[in-house]
Write a structure and sequence with these properties.
The complex is a heterodimer of chains A (205) and B (368).
Chain A: H1 3-24, H2 43-46, H3 53-58, H4 63-73, H5 79-93, H6 97-146, H7 155-182, H8 184-204
Helix pairs in contact in A: 1-6, 1-7, 4-6, 5-6, 5-8, 6-7, 6-8
Chain B: E1 5-6, E2 35-38, E3 41-44, H1 45-53, H2 57-61, E4 69-74, E5 79-84, E6 89-95, E7 100-105, E8 111-116, E9 121-126, E10 131-136, E11 142-147, E12 153-158, E13 163-168, E14 173-179, E15 184-189, E16 195-200, E17 205-210, E18 215-221, E19 226-231, E20 238-242, E21 247-252, E22 257-263, E23 279-281, E24 287-291, E25 297-302, E26 308-313, E27 318-323, E28 329-334, E29 339-344, E30 349-355, E31 360-365
Classes of the chains: A mainly alpha (205), B mainly beta (368).
Chain lengths: 205, 368
């Protein structure tokens, strides 16, 4: 694609993106994703077991729970494997199964919720940087147009602006693609938490 | 608010070509296993057919191991997942058009119909070959539809042009349109086939359409963004879910009036996360199930008192559901967790979860 076409595309997309974010929720003007921003997950959305209030205070005191939470929260561990780990761990817990299950869920809830918040903050940071970049591109394009259109144009200046616009547009476009990809991450974390919670509940019953 | 808007002016109905089948539906009856009703008594045409033909007795006597096929539309992957309900696993996947949502099986069990909204049509899948073999002429962006008791006519809600399209399934032709409210979605047909109810998302109304005259006879105001309409099998009540309002309105279909509302409350859950969409009611009308979207739960409702008995945690963003024909199981589509939950209807417990495609939307279950 030619820089000019790329630029037009980028600016239009950015405009649309900003508009959509504003229309979606005025509280989160920097939120770049199509789905509505839900800052915190609620326990009730993923859990129908006993209250975890107590477990939320104590799960970190149990080294085995702490280790397992860390392992299960890592998204590189396939979900099937993580579910199997839960089954094995709780099966081995014997009479303490219900208590251990609660601690495990409390740990996963806290850890994955935090992970999700970090990703969402990163997305908003990226969106702010995109806006700054878009402003710079717009300024460069205006400067390009304002250069005297005569028989002896300032060729060096024109070239410099052209190169800068091309590079900025490329960066803008690449970031735009990664934002779209990254928007899937909070959803993936929520999905993982739900699947793990379900595996714990199944073992506790 | 239980206000009611009586029908004030006649809505226009597009002139339609008369169909030769219009008058005599009986001679066109297709072999069906779906129950039909006469004088309030439930009949199953299959029993009659089997008596005459005498070959499906073993099928009717089959017990617990009865396997049905559930077809699940995956809105994002543009596929249909086929689930064997006895094995509880996916046994096949069918590629369809863009954005499949509303799904149903024709009464003769020959075709799965699926509304592919972004292709502005309804595709017909041959249940014998699992291949898309034909299309039906809906309006733009079809979402949900329902067929009449003869299995010959299909009523389709077209989200983008504020109409309900009437289609002759056999001839694949469009018989006409009825103008309704903005963003029509939910479609419910009275058990006798005489009244079609369509809900419009933006107008917040349930439109009662006389299927003989194809005119709106009443409009009933419900809570914000109605999504689904379901009659009880005896025709005594119509339930309409409101996604943003967070309620289910119980409507008297004769008086065209809201006679009660179901409200939901789940401890620890924000009220706005409770978004009722899909509804299923048992044949005897004693138990209703309401899918609560991002609350990830199905509410179990007492059909007589309309009180919530229980909330079942299923999967993420649960929208639609279907019973197996024996009503032993209820399958729900969970859009975010990309799975289908299996509920044991007698025990009121979630007994299994089946992974399907991306963004499962609707589900239809075959009679055999």
């Amino acid at each position: 694609m030619k820089p000019a076409a790329l630029l037009l595309f980028a600016i239009t997309t950015l405009g649309a993106g900003l508009q959509r974010a504003e229309a979606a929720d005025p509280r989160y003007p920097d939120w770049p994703c199509a789905q509505a921003k839900v800052p915190e997950l609620s326990v009730a959305a993923v859990w129908d077991g006993p209250s975890i209030e107590q477990a939320q205070k104590t799960w970190q005191d149990d080294p085995a729970i702490k280790n397992l939470v860390e392992r299960l929260a890592a998204r590189r561990i396939p979900i099937e494997e993580a579910q199997k780990n839960i089954e094995d761990f709780l099966a081995a817990a014997g009479a303490a199964k219900a208590d251990k299950g609660l601690l495990l869920f409390a740990g996963l809830f806290e850890t994955l919720n935090r992970q999700r918040t970090e990703v969402m903050n990163g997305l908003e940071r990226l969106q702010r940087r995109q806006r700054e970049l878009a402003d710079r591109i717009k300024a460069d394009v205006s400067a390009q147009h304002e250069l005297p259109d005569n028989a002896h144009p300032d060729q060096a200046k024109l070239d410099e602006l052209g190169t800068r616009i091309e590079w900025s547009t490329r960066i803008f476009d690449e970031r735009r693609r990664s934002v779209r990809y990254a928007c899937e991450v909070p959803v993936a974390i929520e999905r993982r938490l739900f699947a793990l919670a379900r595996a714990i509940r199944r073992q506790m019953e | 608010m239980e206000s009611r808007v009586r029908r004030a002016k006649a809505r226009s109905v597009a002139p339609t070509k008369a169909s030769p089948f219009e008058a005599g539906r009986a001679h066109f009856a297709l072999p069906t296993l779906r129950p039909f009703y006469m004088n309030g008594i439930r009949y199953c045409e299959a029993i009659w057919r089997c008596t005459v033909v005498g070959i499906c007795v073993p099928f009717l006597l089959a017990g617990d191991a009865q396997a049905y096929k559930a077809y699940v539309s995956n809105e994002k992957s543009n596929t249909i997942s086929i689930i064997d309900t006895a094995e509880r696993k996916v046994v096949g996947t069918i590629k369809v058009g863009q954005r499949p949502r509303g799904i149903a099986i024709t009464r003769d069990q020959k075709y799965v119909l699926v509304a592919v909204g972004d292709d502005d049509t309804i595709q017909m899948i041959d249940t014998a070959t699992n291949k898309v073999v034909d299309t039906l002429p809906s309006g733009p962006d079809p979402e949900l539809f329902t067929d009449d008791p003869s299995g010959r006519l299909l009523y389709v809600a077209n989200e983008n042009d504020n109409t309900v399209t009437i289609i002759d399934i056999e001839r694949r032709t469009r018989l006409g349109d009825v103008e309704v409210g903005v963003e029509p979605e939910g479609m419910g047909l009275s058990p006798d086939g005489k009244i079609l109810v369509n809900t419009s998302e933006t107008t917040n109304m349930a439109h009662f359409i006389d299927t003989a005259t194809r005119k709106i006879v009443a409009n009933v105001l419900v809570d914000s963004r109605p999504r689904f309409a379901q009659f009880k099998d005896d025709g005594s009540e119509l339930w309409v879910s409101s996604e943003i309002g967070g309620t289910v309105s119980i409507i008297d279909p004769v008086k065209h009036a809201v006679k009660g509302k179901i409200n939901f409350a789940i401890p620890g859950m924000r009220q706005e996360a409770i978004q009722p969409v899909g509804i299923a009611i048992t044949h005897d009308g004693k138990t209703g199930f309401v899918a609560l979207g991002p609350a990830n739960r199905i509410a179990v409702i007492d059909g007589a008192t309309h009180q919530v008995q229980k909330y079942l945690l299923v999967g993420q963003r649960v929208w639609h559901m279907a019973f197996t024909p024996d009503e032993k199981y209820l399958l729900t589509t969970n859009g975010v967790s990309n799975d289908v939950s299996v509920i044991d209807v007698a025990a009121l417990k979630v007994i299994d979860t089946i992974q399907v495609g991306e963004l499962p939307w609707g589900v239809a279950i075959s009679q055999h």
